[in-house]
Specification:
The chain is α/β, with parallel strands linked by helices and 194 residues long. Helix content is 36%, strand content 21%.
């Protein structure tokens, strides 16, 4: 097994009706990574679609995985993928939407709680640890009194859509940097003031 292998799980909900939702931004980041690597997603026996490749020659190998399940039950496929590839949770990067991070911002961390994110909650329960890396893609809080559950299941607004390609690109860059140089290097790049 390749000793420089990372599992990158992009969270979201299955089906075209959800594809543009804020909740699916993790899967949008994986689409960006797959495009960069000229990799195609294929069905996998872990109830996921998987693409793999390297972002540069000799670089770390990335297994890009999109669970076929709904967000709130992402843990089963992620646990199955870790077992399939014989990977420890320290080699897992989960890319997900984050209400507590402003839109057009990414935050990177390892460990910690689920912060009310049901996809993370299910993964932590399924793999038995919270010690994995998260790429938290900021979607911001809903305006006014809009319910958070309703907000995450809506598509990005028109003003957000113009900024979305840069946000997805930054998150994909962060995944590549974490795999190549480690979390600290990626945090120094993406958390420092512009």
């Amino acid at each position: 097994m390749d000793d420089n292998l990372w599992l990158v799980a992009g969270l979201g909900n299955p089906g075209p009706g959800y594809s543009g939702n804020r909740h699916n931004v993790g899967q949008m980041v994986l689409a960006e990574l797959a495009d960069r690597m000229s990799a195609n997603f294929k069905s996998h026996k872990t109830n996921s679609t998987v693409a793999d490749g390297r972002s540069f020659p000799g670089g770390p190998k990335l297994i890009l995985a999109r669970p076929n399940t709904f967000m709130n039950v992402s843990g089963g496929p992620v646990a199955a993928l870790l077992r399939f590839y014989s990977l420890d949770a320290s080699r897992l990067i989960v890319v997900h939407d984050e209400l507590d991070v402003p839109f057009d911002t990414i935050k990177l961390k390892a460990g910690g709680g689920h912060g009310g994110h049901n996809g993370l909650r299910d993964i932590i329960a399924a793999i038995g640890t919270n010690e994995f890396v998260r790429v938290r893609v900021g979607i911001g809080r809903p305006p006014g009194r809009q319910d958070a559950a309703d907000y995450v299941l809506r598509d990005f607004g028109s003003s957000e859509r113009s900024a979305l390609p840069n946000l997805l690109s930054d998150a994909a860059d962060a995944v590549e940097l974490i795999a190549a140089e480690g979390l600290t290097a990626a945090q120094q790049k993406f958390h420092s003031p512009a």
